[in-house]
Amino acid sequence: MTKVLDVEGALDALVTGGVVGLPTDTVYGLAASLAHPLAIAALFQLKGRPTTVALPVLVSSVAQIEELGVKWTRRARTLSDTLWPGALTVVVAVPSALSALVGSATDTVGFRCPHDELLLRLLQRSGPLALTSANAHGKRPCESASQLLEAFDGRSGLSGVIDDGLRTGDVSTVVDISQPEWRIVRQGATSAAALSVLLD
């Protein structure tokens, strides 16, 4: 039976290559450490997500992104300084090894710094995490630990879940700034108008 974990238990699972269910500032997610490629592969398999649909990466700071060898451009920094932590995923160009790790075929990855105190504390200690919403691919995201446990009951590969109450926020907006012409990939909590003020 999948366990309910405290922060220390979740950290132990992540740093040893496990997949963990986490509360975020939007909904619950499934996370794996970038330091463990096999854990990321297990994450794709657990969710039933095609490996061609890239995973975003959660961080606690821009410094964590730059430590991955990513150039955080002036436009990216304008967004992160103004709208992070928050419900905005910023897609930028990255080294090909990193993009391949999370399933991107375009040498780009989306990064986000979540507005959730528990998750930020965890990220500060775990390092960057590949994360996707906690649901079978194509299904509605889980908003509680109990929903997550029910959704993945009987599936192998989940080390446990942190239970921190309901999470019912809007999904993050995904904006791609890897090209000169920026574009919204997915509309979410951050408005196009807010992005236009910063990017146009």
List the helices and strands and how they pair.
Layout: E1 3-5, H1 7-15, E2 19-23, E3 28-33, H2 37-47, E4 57-58, H3 62-66, H4 74-83, E5 88-93, H5 96-101, E6 108-112, H6 117-126, E7 129-133, H7 145-151, E8 158-162, E9 173-176, E10 183-186, H8 192-199
Textual characterization of the structure:
The protein has 200 residues and is an alpha/beta fold. The chain has a single domain, classed as DHBP synthase (Alpha-Beta Complex). The chain is 33% helix and 22% strand. The chain contains eight helices and ten strands. It has helices at residues 7-15, 37-47, 62-66, 74-83, 96-101, 117-126, 145-151, 192-199, and strands spanning 3-5, 19-23, 28-33, 57-58, 88-93, 108-112, 129-133, 158-162, 173-176, 183-186. The chain has a ten-stranded mixed sheet, sandwiched between helices. The protein is globular, with a radius of gyration of 16 Å. The model has no long low-confidence stretch (mean pLDDT 94).
